[in-house]
Amino acid sequence: MKKIKTTPYLPEEFVVEQISDNEANIIAFPFETGFSVSLAHPLRRFLLSSSVGYAPVAIKIEGAKHEFDSVRGMLEDISDFIINLKSIRFRLKDEAKYAEVEYSFTGPCEVRGSDLQSDEVDVVTPDAFLATLNEDATLKFSLKIYQGIGYVPSEDIRDDIDEDYITLDAFFTPVRRATYQIENVLVEDSPNFEKLILNIVTDGQISPVDAFKNALSVMHAQMAVFSSEISIQTPVAIERTADSEEVKSLIATIDDLGLSARSYNCLDRAEIKYIAQIVFMSKNDLKNVKNLGKKSFDEIVEKLEEAGFSVGQVLADETVAAVKKQIES
Q1: What angle do CA 281, 287, 289 make, to 5 degrees?
Q2: Among 92, 267, 278, 289, whose CB has the most other CB atoms within 10 angstroms?
Q3: What is the mean pLDDT of residues 204-210?
Q4: The whole model's pTM is what?
Q5: Where are the domains of the chain?
Q6: Model confidence at 221: pLDDT above 50
Q7: What DSSP assignment string belongs to 8-40?
């Protein structure tokens, strides 16, 4: 006879397996069947989407006006230079959220991530290649580095950046990979329990354990909304809005619009009798009414606007319910 439970089994074992500075396995067990994936999937999402990192969001290069320009004496075009720059991962010191850093290099030399180290910025990918300069080259540039989460395209940043800067796609996420596997474990002679192994790889801006702690914190914060006292809101009775001026106008017939005979007949043949029926339609639905030409479509839209409505207008749920009740009665 199977043991009858009143609460699910609580996992008791938690292990951090440090594989390298930037990789770790987070292991927990035993879970009831199905519980592992229920926790692993959202944790993975939070690791990839909410981990805080740093990225350059704009660059100003002396002698270059746009990303398709070039700098004399530098082997790489600006577009290649920017691609190389994105492979360099930064970390701001003293928990700063923003820094603007200026650099100057004279050739001949190869510029790498380690050369971008400064009093304000740590570079966690020192070997990453940036550019090659010949003997008569001088490379001067300024970087704006921000703290953030996720991915932000350059067009979303452009309005906040000075015009002499080239805006960059900002990939803040410091978690490079987050995967999980689930194994069966034996508990009290039952093989139907699970072990969760969550593998986390970061780029060095943050440790895997700190990334995991951050994901847990964000997950708890998101779920906190459910911990407040639940109050049941009494829905507004439909009858309260059934006599409103808006509802009265919506349940008026299309005769009140003063349409031409052609437009009126098209709607009438489509069994559209009330102004509300037009408001509830999308513009495409209205255009697809049989034999309704562009001139008639424009007339209906104009007359509807004169009545204070528009095609596809979003109305309050109570109003929609009240109108439908009146039309169907």
Answers
A1: 80
A2: 278
A3: 95
A4: 0.66
A5: 13-51+175-226, 52-171, 239-328
A6: yes
A7: PPPP-EEEEEEEETTEEEEEEEEEETTHHHHHH
